[in-house]
Amino acid sequence: MTDPRVLRTRESMQAAALELAMGDEAKSFNVAAITQLAGINRATFYDHYSSVQDVLFAALTRDLDVLRYLDIERRADRSRPRLDVLRDSLEGVVAHIRKFEPIYRRSFDNTSDGVSQNVLTKHFTVSIRQVIDRQPAFPEELNRDIAAHFVAYALVGAIEVWVMNDNVSEKALLESVLASMPGWWGELD
Predict the structure, then answer these.
(1) DSSP three-state, residue 80
(2) Less Cβ crowding at N or C end of the chain, within 10 Å?
């Protein structure tokens, strides 16, 4: 079990990173600003994270992990159509991105900042692979890792188009993603 002090320190750094990254002044998003806002020193920061991107990645991942657990609960209800479960999960991701929109918009807009792409791709890949691995049967011709990565990267690409184009609505995102999902996805529990 992790020491509660360590958890509080990480939570403090993650909260500081989110607050700074959500602000208008992206230039103030650095280790010095995070440590000052979190009330820690640089050594403590580097005991936990190697960069500001790492702490931001951890903070966004923590929020997305809640969505993964909700998806697992929804999938346990076998009476619901699978596409309804997927729609609910995607709506959760949309709400997450709206909550942290300045971070995602800046990151997608900056080709040298891979936080948005990396955090979402990792979240989707892990989540999809967990769904695939719970299946009693999965198409033999599909490599599970390739299938999970294929869908994850496609989802991130669709989300990037939505985030970066004000003329693409949430409804268009959801409907396009649902219509584009591979046929085998609708069969998964």
Answers:
(1) coil
(2) N
CATH topology of domain 52-187: Tetracycline Repressor; domain 2 (1.10.357)
Q: What ranges do the domains of the chain cover?
A: 1-50, 52-187
Whether the pLDDT of residue 25 is over 80: the answer is no
Contact 59, 15 (CB under 8 A): yes
Tell me the average pLDDT across 176-186. Answer: 90
Per the CB < 8 A criterion, the answer to whether 170 and 176 are in contact is no
Fold adopted by 1-50: Arc Repressor Mutant, subunit A (1.10.10)
Which region among 76-85, 153-162, 167-176 has the lowest average model confidence (pLDDT)? 76-85
- The mean per-residue pLDDT over the stretch 148-175 comes to 96
* 81 DSSP 8-state letter: -
For residue 6, what are the contacts with CB-CB under 8 A and spacing of at least 6? 48
How many CB atoms lie under 10 A from the CB of residue 107? 25
CB atoms within 10 A of CB 37: 16
